[in-house]
Amino acid sequence: MRLEHDMLGDMRLDDEVYYGIYTARALQNFPITGVPIHRELADALVTVKKAAALANRAIGALEGKKADAVIVACDEILAGALRDQFVVDCMAGGAGTSANMNVNEVIANRAIELLGGSKGDYAVIHPLDHVNRHQSTNDVFPTALRIAVIRLLKRVSDCFAELQSALQEKEEVFAGVLKLGRTQLADAVPVTLGQEFGAWAQAVSRDRWRLYKAEERLRQVNIGGTAVGTGLDAPREYIFNVIERLRELTGLGLARAEYMMDPTQNADVFAEVSGFLKAAAVNLTKLSGDLRLLSSGPAGGIGEIMLPAVQAGSSIMPGKVNPVMAEAVSQAAFQVMACDTAVTLAAASGQLELNAFLPLMAKNLFEMLDILNGVLPLFTQRCVKGITANEQVCLRNLEASLALVTALVPCIGYDKACEVAAGCRQTGMSVRDAVLAQGLMSAERLDAIFTPQRLTSPSASVERGSEHAEHE
Question: What are the residue ranges in the chain where pLDDT is below 50?
Answer without folding.
Answer: 459-472
